[in-house]
Design a protein that fits this description.
Radius of gyration: 15 Å
Number of helices: 3
Strand order of the largest sheet: 2-1-3-4
CATH class: Alpha Beta
CATH topology: Glutaredoxin
Order of helices and strands: EHEHEEH
Structural class: alpha+beta
Amino acid sequence: MTPLLRRTTKKKSSDRVVTLVSKPGCHLCDDARAVVETVCAETGASWEEKDISRDEALYREYWEQIPVVLVDGEQHTFWRVDPDRLRRELGG
């Protein structure tokens, strides 16, 4: 019997969504925002920012790791964002 082959489709950068989970007054969040904004502009990915102080579920999940970067809803990194690693993740 031939094994079933699964076709996986890699998303284009323009179809990817980066979410920065941050909080007001956080200098690491400011640094992460600059990296996310730059890399997303280069790769064509969209990005959004969510304030952890306004979302109880995010607060419970990530309060010790701020800032947190999610790519397509999955945690990519926290505290410091490596632009090269994010770029690779987004396919850029």
